[in-house]
Amino acid sequence: MHSSLSPSSVTDILEVDDLHVDFELPRGRLHAVRGASFSLGSGESLGIVGESGSGKSVTSRAIMGLLPATTARVKARTLRYGQHDLLDAPERVMRRLRGGEIAMIYQDPMRALNPIMRVGDQVAEAIRAHEPSLGRKELSTRVVGLLDAVRIPDANKRIRLYPHQLSGGMRQRIVIAMALAANPSILIADEPTTSLDVTVQAEILDLLGDLQEERGMGMILVTHDLGVAAWHTNRIMVMYAGRGVEHATTADLFEDMRMPYTRALFDSIPRVDMPPGSLLKSVEGRPVDPSNPPPGCAFRERCHLAVEICGTTAPPRRQVGSHWWDCWDDQEEKSVK
Amino acid sequence: MTISPGAAASPPDTPPTPLLETTGLTQTFRLPTGAEVQAVSDVSFVLHRGETLGLVGESGCGKSTTVRTILQAPPPTAGTVTFGGIELTTTPPRQLRRLRRRMQLVFQDPHASMNPRWTVRDCIAEPLQVHRVGTSSSRNDRVHELMDLVGLDEGYLTSRPGSLSGGQCQRVAIARALALDPDLICFDEAVSALDVSIQAQILNLIARLRADLELTSIFIAHDLAVVKLVSDRIGVMYLGKLCEIGPAESLYRSPRHPYTKALLSAIPKPDPRHPDRLRRVNLRGELPSPTDPPSGCRFRTRCDRADERCSLDVPPLQTISPGHQVACHYPLSASAPVEMTPLPTRRANGVVGQSPTR
Amino acid sequence: MLDSTVPSIRSRARRLVGARIPVVVLAVLTAAAMVGPLFAPDSGSQDLRNARAGPLSPGHLLGTDGYGRDMLARTLEGARISIFVGVASVALCLLIGGTLGITAGYWKGRIDAGIMRVMDMVLAFPTLILALAIAAFLGPSLRNVVVAISFSTLPHYARLARATTMSITQRDFVSSSALLGAPHRHILWRHIAPNTVSPLLTYALLAIGMAIIVEASLSFLGLGVQPPTPSWGSMIAEGRPHLQGAPHVALVPGAFLFMVILSLNLLADSLRSGAPAAGLGR
Ligand SMILES: Nc1ncnc2c1ncn2[C@@H]1O[C@H](COP(=O)(O)OP(=O)(O)OP(=O)(O)O)[C@@H](O)[C@H]1O
Ligand SMILES: Nc1ncnc2c1ncn2[C@@H]1O[C@H](COP(=O)(O)OP(=O)(O)OP(=O)(O)O)[C@@H](O)[C@H]1O
Ligand SMILES: [Mg+2]
Ligand SMILES: [Mg+2]
Question: pTM value?
C-alpha cells in the first residue's frame, strides 16, 4: 500500500513513509509526528495542512535534518531524497543538501534576514555558499537576476537597502531569492505568508507557484489554511495530531472530503459568499495533548460521526486511487448494511 | 446582563441617534526624523447602536490608529468624535476616564494584552476593580458569568495567560472587554493572529455575543471574508483614507472602488476551480510611503483607471446608493461586479480595472 | 546534528552550581552569623598570652587574633555587620532608586530629565571615592556607612528601574489597562512595579556583594564601624601587617568575604539566565 501512494513514484525525488518524531523532554516524551507518509515528484507541489501543533513544521524540519539531535528521535520506514537516505546521511552530506538541493522558507522573513546587512549582500552570500569561485561581476549579475526572478522591481537599486527599509512582502521575496540561490530541486515553504497581508499573500503565493513551475522544482507548502492550499498545490496531505489523516490530489480532495477533520477544517474558512452574520461550522474542543495521544482515532472527541470503535482501535486506512484517508466511517459499507 | 437602552427602545419613526460619529478625523504623527505621517486623514462615519462596522485595509493603512484616535489614545490632531452625544475631544481627562468604561478595545495579540504575572481571574476582574463595581463577591460572580459567556472552563481561572492557547487567551480578552457592559467594543485584528480553526471559534463567539448582547462594535481585520461574517457595514481604508463604506452585502456584491475589488479578489478561496483563480486582480507597484502620499487620490499610483484628474483632485466620499459611499472619480459600475475577461494563463498578472468600462 | 548530549549535562551541572550551592552557602553562613555567637567563645574576651595562635589550636578552631580573641567568633560577628550593611543599603536603594526610576520612566518628559540629570551627576564620581567622601564627612558609624553606600550606588538602581519601566509601558497590557480608564496609581502599582521587581532583585543580589566590599573597604580604611566591633574589612586591616607570621588573621575574613561575594554572583547569574534557583521563587 505504502509504495503505491503516488502513481508516478518513478520520478519521486522525495519519499517519506511512516515518519515518526518524538521529543524527549524533561517532563516526558512528546509524540510530535506519529505517522506521516507522502512523496513529492519534481515539478509538483504538495500542501501539508493542519491546525497549530499538528506537526507540520516538525515534519518539514525532519526532512531538512534540522531537529535538535539532543531531544528529537526520528524514525521512518523510508526517508529518502533522490539516492540519499536522509535518516543516516552524515552531517556533511546533509549540510550540502540543505540549502543546496532542498531549500526552506520560514514564516517570519525578518528572522531569516540579517538586519544589519544589505539585502543584496545577503543574496550574494547565499549564492557564494554554493559557488565559491564566482567573480564579483558575475556574482552581482546573478544577484540582480535572482531579484528579477522574484519580481522585485528596480532590483539594481534595492540591493543596497537594509531589510527594515523593505515592506514585509519585499522581505519575503528576498528570502525566496536566497532560497533559490542554489537552484534547489525541492523548496519547503513553512507558512510563508502567515505574517503578510491578504493582497501580499496572494502575490507571494502566485510567485511561488510560478517559480515552481518555471524551474520544475518540487514544493512543499505548509499552511493551516485549506484555502491557501487550494490554488497553489497539486496534492494535499491533511495532518491531525501528528498523523497524516487524508491525502489526495487537490481537485479530488475538494471534490470529496472523506475524513471528517478535513471537512471541519474546510468549514472553518470564512468565505466571501457567506451572508453577513452566518456562523462557521468550527471544530469545537481542543487539539489532543501530544504527550499523551488517546488510543483509537485522535479526532474522535471532536468528531460528530464518532462511534464506539473510534475510541478503542486506530482507524483503518482506506484508499481509492491516490486518495487515502483514515476513518472508521465508511459510506459504502454503511449503504450496504 | 443589562443591555444599554438602544435602537430597540427608541420610537420607530425618529431616526436612531448614532452612538458614535466622527467628522474629519485626522491623526498626524511626527517621526523622530522630522517627517510627518498622516496616519488617518479626514475620516468621517457614523455608527448606530447595535451595529457593527468592519474596517479593512492593508497593514499600515491606519485602521488601528483610527480606533485608537476614537478612544482618545492619543486624541486626534483634527476632527471631532461624538460618543453618545458627548464630544470626546474636549472632555476633561477625569471625565474621559469614567467614560472609558463604556468603550473597550480588544487587541490583536491576546498574550501581550494580559499582564503575564496575573491569573485569568485577575485579568477579567481588572475592569470591575478599576471602576469599583460591586463587592468582591459580586465581582467574583460576574467573572464566573463572563467565563461562561465566552465559553471557557472555570478551571482556567487560576491559570496564567502564558499557559493558555491563543484562542483561549483571546476569549479571556473578550470576557475582560465585556465585563463592564460597554456600549462600544473595538476588535483590533482580534482574530488575525489565530489559526483558521481557532479563528472560526472566535468569530462564532463574536457573532453570538453580537446577537445576544446587541453589541455595537468596530471590527478590524485585513481579510474581507472575515470582516463580512460579523459586520453590518464595512469601511475600506487605504493609506489613512476611507475609500469606500457601505452595507456589507452590497459592498461585496458590487465593489465600487477599484481597491475594494482588488482586496476581494486576493482572498484565498477554498475551491480549486473558483473562477477568481484565473482572474486575480493584482495591484501594481507597492504601497507608497505614508510620509509622502501621492497627491490627489492616494490610490492612483496603483490604479489603472487613474488619469490626470486623480492626481489633482482628492476624490470626496460620495453617496452612490443609499448608505453606500465611495471616494473615487471613476467608480466601478454597479452592474459589473467581478466581471473581468478571464485571461488564458493560470494566473493573470492583470491590474485593477482591466475592462474598459468607462 | 553534531551536538551530542554533552551540553545538556554541562548545563545541568552549571544550573546546580549556579543555584543550589550558593543558596546553601549563604543560608549556612547567615544562620551561623545569627546563632553562632551563642556557641562560639566570647568574641570580646582578650587573652594576650594566646595572641595570633594558629588555626586548630585548642579551643580556637580558626585561631586567634592579635589580642588573643577567637577568630571564628569575630568572623561570624563580622558577618552580621556585613550582612546588615549589604541588605540594608540595598533595600534602601531598591526603595528610593526604584521609585525614582519608575517615576522617571513612567512620566517621561521634564520629570525624567530632572531625575536623571541628578543621577548622572552622582554617577560621574567613582562609587568608592564618593562613598569614602560621604563616610568621612558624616563620621564613622554603622548607619553612616549604610547611607554612604546607598547614596553612591543609587543611580544604578534608578537607571535600571527607568529602562525596565519604559519597556513595560510599551506593552499592550499597560495600554489596555489605561484604555480601561485605570488611574495612574493602579497602573504603577499593579502593572509596572511588580514587573520591575524581578530585574531589580537580580541586580540587587549582585549589589549586596558590592555593598559588602565597599563596607569592607571603608572599614579597612577606618571609616566604617569602630573597634572593638569586628568587621571583615577592619579584621583584614588588622591582619595585614602580620601576613608573614600569622596569615590566618587576614585570610580567614578574606576567605569568608570571597565565598559570600562568589555565591552572590553565581546566584544572580543563575537568576538572570532564567534557571530556577532553589529556595528563591521568581
Ligand atoms: N524542538 C522542539 N522540542 C520539543 N517539542 C517540540 C519542538 N518542536 C515542536 N515541538 C512540539 O511538537 C508539536 C508539533 O509542532 P509543530 O511545530 O510541528 O506544529 P505545527 O503544525 O507546525 O504548528 P503551527 O501551525 O503552530 O506552526 C507541538 O506540540 C510542539 O510543541
Ligand atoms: N505612534 C506612532 N508614531 C508614528 N507613526 C505611527 C504611530 N502609530 C502609527 N504610526 C504610523 O501610522 C500608520 C498607520 O498605522 P496603523 O498601526 O494604524 O496601521 P494599521 O492599519 O493598523 O496596520 P496593521 O494592519 O499593520 O495593524 C503607519 O504608517 C504607522 O507607521
Ligand atoms: Mg509550524
Ligand atoms: Mg493595526
Answer: 0.83
